[in-house]
Amino acid sequence: MKGNEAMAEAAIRAGCDAYFGYPITPQSEIIEYLMHENPAERTGMVVLQAESEIAAINMVYGAAGCGKRAMTTSSSPGISLKQEGLSYIAGAELPCLIVNVVRGGPGLGTIQPSQSDYFQAVKGGGHGDYKLIVLAPATVQESVDYVKLGFDLAFKYRNPVMILSDGIIGQMMEKVELFEQQPLLTEEFEWATVGKKPGRSSVFVTSLQLKPEEQENVNHRLQAKYREIEKHEVRYESFLCDDAEYLLTAFGSCARITKKAQEIAREKGYKVGLLRPQTLYPFPTVAFNKLAGQMKGILTVEMNAGQMVEDVRLAVNGQTRVEHFGRFGGMIPDPEEIFQAFEQKIIGG
Amino acid sequence: MKGNEAMAEAAIRAGCDAYFGYPITPQSEIIEYLMHENPAERTGMVVLQAESEIAAINMVYGAAGCGKRAMTTSSSPGISLKQEGLSYIAGAELPCLIVNVVRGGPGLGTIQPSQSDYFQAVKGGGHGDYKLIVLAPATVQESVDYVKLGFDLAFKYRNPVMILSDGIIGQMMEKVELFEQQPLLTEEFEWATVGKKPGRSSVFVTSLQLKPEEQENVNHRLQAKYREIEKHEVRYESFLCDDAEYLLTAFGSCARITKKAQEIAREKGYKVGLLRPQTLYPFPTVAFNKLAGQMKGILTVEMNAGQMVEDVRLAVNGQTRVEHFGRFGGMIPDPEEIFQAFEQKIIGG
Amino acid sequence: MARKGDIVIDIERCKGCEVCLEACPNQVLAISNAVNSKGYHYAVKVNSNCIGCANCAVVCPDAVITVYREKK
Amino acid sequence: MARKGDIVIDIERCKGCEVCLEACPNQVLAISNAVNSKGYHYAVKVNSNCIGCANCAVVCPDAVITVYREKK
Amino acid sequence: MTEEIIIAGFGGQGVLSMGQILCYGGVMQNLEVSWMPSYGPEMRGGTANCTAIISDQLISSPVLSTFDTAIVLNQPSMDKFENTVKPGGLLIYEENGTTRKPQRTDINICAISAFEESVKMKNTKVFNMIIIGGFLKMKPVIDLENVIKGLKKVLPDRYHNLIPLNEEAIRKGMEIIKPEHVALIRDIHS
Amino acid sequence: MTEEIIIAGFGGQGVLSMGQILCYGGVMQNLEVSWMPSYGPEMRGGTANCTAIISDQLISSPVLSTFDTAIVLNQPSMDKFENTVKPGGLLIYEENGTTRKPQRTDINICAISAFEESVKMKNTKVFNMIIIGGFLKMKPVIDLENVIKGLKKVLPDRYHNLIPLNEEAIRKGMEIIKPEHVALIRDIHS
Amino acid sequence: MADSLIDPGNLVYKRTDVLNDRIMHYCPGCGHGTAHRMLAEAIDELGIQSETIGVAPVGCSVLAYYYLNVDMSEAAHGRAPAVATGIKRVFPEKYVFTYQGDGDLAAIGTAETIHACNRGENILIVFINNGIYGMTGGQMAPTTLEGMKSSTSPRGRDISSMGNPLKMTELVAQLPGTYFVTRHSVHTPANVRKTKRALKKALEYQKLNKGTCFVEIVANCPSGWKMTPVQSNKWMEQNMFPFYPLGDIKVPE
Amino acid sequence: MADSLIDPGNLVYKRTDVLNDRIMHYCPGCGHGTAHRMLAEAIDELGIQSETIGVAPVGCSVLAYYYLNVDMSEAAHGRAPAVATGIKRVFPEKYVFTYQGDGDLAAIGTAETIHACNRGENILIVFINNGIYGMTGGQMAPTTLEGMKSSTSPRGRDISSMGNPLKMTELVAQLPGTYFVTRHSVHTPANVRKTKRALKKALEYQKLNKGTCFVEIVANCPSGWKMTPVQSNKWMEQNMFPFYPLGDIKVPE
Ligand SMILES: Cc1ncc(C[n+]2csc(CCOP(=O)(O)OP(=O)(O)O)c2C)c(N)n1
Ligand SMILES: Cc1ncc(C[n+]2csc(CCOP(=O)(O)OP(=O)(O)O)c2C)c(N)n1
Ligand code: SF4
Ligand code: SF4
Ligand code: SF4
Ligand code: SF4
Ligand code: SF4
Ligand code: SF4
Ligand SMILES: [Mg+2]
Ligand SMILES: [Mg+2]
């Protein structure tokens, strides 16, 4: 199954109630698959093609505010349009799932794979202090699993979750095992607009506070939640780090390629480890910090001009040198050139 | 003059050709002042209230693509809506000026002053690898001066420039000296859509590249430009840093308040310096890095949950401890509590 | 003849907009010189000509007025 | 009688869409078996019935055809 | 000299322009000034207030949590700002608009019946000028002449005929302000 | 065993589905597979291509710059991919679609006249199956039986009656593929 | 004597329970309050309070959720129809309404308005047209009349540079997705009562699943127009109604 | 003999120089090519190449700047009318046009379209209505007909869940800001010629400063519709034209 289609199937199986989307390459297969599958009949899931990305994210806001599993997907320019909506959703503490199948930017850019929306995803592309939980799948299997995980985390923390995929993962096909169909939610959450029952006061979903004091309290609550998330939800994978003197790090599709570069480096006798963050927020800061001491140098490999490298540097806090190697604008590095960059920037540098 | 009005007057005097905006508190005085002044008669400047922030930024794209001085202003939620447009403008390398009079977020938040759009401004809230030049005025006078400086930098680098103001600077009144009226641009830039003259090939303004190779070249060109900007355009102000053992840092309105906290600290005998970045991108990385060695600790003070502190930490690279103190959601720290935070987090910490 | 009516004005809610004055067929209402705790000069009943038509209450933006009318 | 005409087909531009075939009043055009370097079976002139009406050129999406007609 | 003032009342009482007039007056007297409103029509109802700072030094923070002087024109403002006056500072309250007297003993307290007076002057629009007068009586930080110049800046040209009336109101305010409690008077030139 | 294949030609030549069929075949044979198209209708015209990887190990990168096998169906694809074949690798080219012969001497080169053959079979739709046959002849990485199973996955149900025809085409391809240049044959099980 | 009348038995009008008792933040005389009350009374009289979900985007009525005693969602500027779509699609049995200003519905939210109506979302859109951006301090709205002054048209709206006032209601009436489209006001007792009837009808129609109901209420904004409430209502009659005539525009056959 | 005709003196039709000689990336038989050519010829015949600035947003025609030999700006999806407004406002003397698909103009760009037309921006909007999102691979557009199949309406457009096809051209014709609104096609020689006349007229009107000119071209998308070009033109006549009838909708008095 194609990554995008697999994610669409995963959404149905995860018991998603409502999908709102708008076509954009390289993610249109998601809505196409859903429309084709007609999940209204399979599970009762709503699928609607919105008039724009902005409408789609606000439809998600509406459905999520009802305590339903709602999601939208898009690619870079479309995700930029959703920033106001994302900030509202984060501010109103609504659970939902957003998928960004990243393509090369800035602007219209290319439709080729890229990872240049890392900052937008983890630092908050919208206004205000908020955080999305950001999951970065490296395989079609993970894309599928993260749909379910994403909804679970979204509801656990009442927080929007983003899957940061890219053109490679979205377009490629590989073996995948799908989980069983999950039931739709039936719970009526006390924070959700479901109709004011007699005896309880009316619910409102809002991110507005007239008084700055109250807004500050909201922010404190959000920050406390983010600390919780940072404590409990960090996920990463490491390969051959125990004896490593050098560390490679990369996320998503790029990590697959970097893994091959690691193999090359090991073959050539360099003791190289690989750390792959699976959650970009919360970032595996502690893991990097602990490993940094044993490393003579760290190379982050990204399909961008250098974004995750900042979080790695923040984690490492000067313990060792952290360099970046990137291809961008839709170009994909190959293992050999990653290895060369490693030799040049880390061994030679 | 109110900060917002002063900026509007500065725009007229800077020879701005076209302003496109949409009302939002706390920046509506800018368009109100312009409409009231009717600069069409004074200088020929166009002022148009657009149907939305998205329309406004795209009108700016159109006018900037003609080689004209174009600008728009908004506040946080409106700036989020402009992210796609900003990414396009950066990708097409058009010069223009954007003002964000920041209010408290996320979501609708409050209309009170905040600095929580720092990340959005400096890390790129839109998709793709791009940078805005970000100027952070701390006084009404600087707001005025940065309008002119902003246009100059925008045209020097063919890059969008953002003035990151906030509700305090926008709403307050203080003494200000206005520069003389500048002439409108008359130059026909070779990159601008002005009508295809016989004998030259047609111009197109675009951020699209079909081939990833070409898009990567565009990105390399952009990155090279950013390196130039980082080399030449860093601006900051420092106070009593020579003998300092501790450093306070803050930007914009918050720096004014922090300066008062510095005075308190100095009165109490602490050797405290203050570094105020005036450009947030390019960030005064070198200045921080140099100073860090002599410091026992650094406190960044921001009206947010901790954003600039990351850039300070990246600059300091582990040389000393960097802590953050923030009020947010529209709350404004007072000098006394900043001083207390300093004592607690830096001296006591 | 019209039935007799009466109204109760929740003066703390009243903002003194005078819209009810316009709507009353019998000039029952006027604006007081005194202000409520919000600083508004509120509406008061100045005579007993009320017929309980509820016009005042119906147009009042702030839902200030309750209306009574004698039963037939 | 109609004047005589002729056309020139820039076969490298042609995408073989057949729209011109439909537009020609005199069935002058057909699609070749051969392909151009883009892989398209291109349009060819198969007779000399052309009257230079330019219909084919006017509907051709790819501006492939140039039309000539004998002067009166 | 630095004078940090908060002025608070209902919207429509001329709260914001009082601060502006004082600041423009300060500019005329070649002082540094800063004026910062509690802004935004997005927040309807409730109280409006502004912070005005007049100083012979550069002003660092336009936003403050304590003040040399608080001028409160209604009860909610008294409730909110009485405690923000620095010890030895000044609280001026408008009698008609407030329902209880201030409680503090460590500050100077003055009452002013500006509304009544404005009714007497047959022009309730001069209400706020009367209060300015009262304030200047207590804290002559700006010369009357400069306040009038400042007023000219704030007032649209078409109202300049009202300047004499306003000047009269200021003088009236100077007359009618009533010190009610005197604490240690802090030197306003500190 | 890892076989990394690029298949390239005009859109409409069935380039993408060839890769898919091979990969589904690989899955049927319990191998790891990865298929990655040059995607996007946003880019009209030009060539389409896909990368198919079949391996008995986990596949790290779905995107490659060099290949064990290149299958090129038109001249632009030959121009683009001839040089991406690893030394000792295999290049298969379709004769009707290309105008010049490959130049390299360090790789194995085969020609196949799939278009001609498909015309003979009176069904140009089997064009790409013929080529799959040719490829499998040279590199029997997947059993025919599993390829047919893969085909069933890719083909909509309503076309399953065409399976025998497709199988025939594969066999035909195995017959007609013509090795033109033999270099050192790299072990496909490396 | 009169006092004796004040007795529950004689009650003819009191505020509905679907409004809670918070004092609204609206300026004196503002039509929003009356419009809120009519909507609340319509919900009350239909007995659908527990099945109703409202959406109010930014604008002076952003706090509608603070007064209307039904579950509500605040929405981003202009996006209420999309938010309402999201709600209605997951809760097709509930009564869903939006309550939007003219800046919201007819400027930034044009696309969402047109498309919700064009899809025939089974929702009620209440459109408060006061010809101005009230909340942000009286800027020109898409509906501001020719020559009308606002803080961004200080010399009056000039059509040639600022464009025409937009009759959004007439536009959506053209769309096959709308079922009931009507224009009212709340400035006199008679108009208030008509407005309530229209709102009730519109909510009732929602059960039929026949498409979008759209109720425009032409309203005053005394603060934005810089008039007293009573003046503003006069001005509205004389200037707004000729351009935005009251009455039904599209009614079910 | 026939060869002797091929002589500059006998030339009756050749590609205009306002198209450069790049081979367009459009699919075989796609109406975009013909529409480009007509626009180019109109510009050519009016002699305004050096005073014309075009805007093409994303959609299959995103590369229009690559073929049309005039200065052009690529625009974000849906925003061409805003970009064109920015251009026209700083260059009121130039001829400014947008060239937009139906997804672009009638879905994401609805607000920009309506408001540019409502302001009466003195620009030409060329609207290519092929009832589908061509570029992204054939998804449903706002203009997709009832029952019409697309990749996101695989069982045909279902009005009750997906909404109605939108007649944007009729809507903008209602707005006082539009001056000339007309609908054409480019699938037969006669229609092509009419389209050119309309485009020429629309560009000429721009000098009058009377408002927006809006030219819809109903076009085929053989790839998106999954038909041969010739089939698609037939289908268009039989299915698109009844719903989107050709002809003038609003003409200057
Ligand atoms: C994205 C965004 N842009 C602008 C604003 C500022 N804003 C808040 S309400 C409003 C318009 C209010 O006008 P209207 O919708 O007519 O409602 P009214 O206040 O008149 O009832 C605006 C522009 C905002 N909150 N968000
Ligand atoms: C913000 C954004 N959303 C979506 C897209 C993807 N996209 C590109 S073109 C297009 C629509 C194309 O349809 P249309 O406007 O009808 O033009 P056509 O290709 O049919 O000529 C879409 C959705 C994009 N580039 N940007
Ligand atoms: S209408 Fe209501 S708020 Fe206005 S004056 Fe009358 S009672 Fe008071
Ligand atoms: S109920 Fe009727 S008569 Fe009585 S006060 Fe109200 S409007 Fe006047
Ligand atoms: S219309 Fe043009 S492209 Fe199509 S077949 Fe004819 S010549 Fe070729
Ligand atoms: S010019 Fe007319 S007659 Fe000649 S080939 Fe073209 S369409 Fe046919
Ligand atoms: S600003 Fe206008 S719309 Fe808003 S509450 Fe005041 S009067 Fe009403
Ligand atoms: S996809 Fe459709 S609109 Fe796009 S070029 Fe192909 S035929 Fe034309
Ligand atoms: Mg309004
Ligand atoms: Mg289309």
Index terms:
heterooctamer, C: 72 residues, alpha+beta, two-stranded antiparallel sheet, 14% helix, 31% strand, G: 253 residues, alpha/beta, Rossmann fold, 7-stranded mixed sheet, 10 helices, 10 strands, 38% helix, globular, binds thiamine diphosphate, binds iron/sulfur cluster, binds magnesium ion
Helical residues, percent of chain E? 25-40%
Q: State the strand order across the main sheet of chain G.
A: 3-2-4-5-9-8-10
SSE order of chain G in H/E notation?
Answer: EHEHEHEHHEEEHHEHEHHE
Work out the helix count of chain E: 6
What's the CATH H-level homologous superfamily of chain E? Pyruvate-ferredoxin oxidoreductase, PFOR, domain III
Strand content of chain E: 25-35%
Domain unit count of chain E: 1
Give the largest interface pair and sizes: A-B, 68 and 69 residues
What topology does this entry show?
The complex is a heterooctamer, with 2 copies of chain A (349 residues), 2 copies of chain C (72 residues), 2 copies of chain E (190 residues) and 2 copies of chain G (253 residues).
Chain A: H1 3-13, E1 18-21, H2 28-37, H3 39-42, E2 46-49, H4 53-65, E3 70-74, H5 76-81, H6 83-91, E4 96-102, H7 118-124, E5 133-135, H8 140-157, E6 160-166, H9 167-171, E7 173-174, E8 204-205, H10 212-232, E9 236-239, E10 246-249, H11 252-267, E11 272-277, E12 279-281, H12 285-292, E13 297-302, H13 308-316, E14 322-326, H14 335-347
Parallel strand pairs in A: 1-2, 1-3, 3-4, 4-6, 5-6, 10-11, 10-13, 13-14
Antiparallel strand pairs in A: 5-12, 9-11
Helix pairs in contact in A: 1-2, 1-8, 4-6, 11-14, 12-13
Chain C: E1 5-9, H1 19-23, E2 29-35, E3 41-45, H2 55-59, E4 65-69
Antiparallel strand pairs in C: 1-4, 2-3
Chain E: E1 2-10, H1 15-28, E2 32-37, E3 47-55, E4 67-72, H2 75-81, E5 85-94, E6 108-112, H3 114-120, H4 127-138, H5 144-154, H6 163-176, E7 178-181
Parallel strand pairs in E: 1-4, 4-5, 5-6
Antiparallel strand pairs in E: 1-3, 2-3, 6-7
The complex binds thiamine diphosphate (2 copies), iron/sulfur cluster (6 copies) and magnesium ion (2 copies).
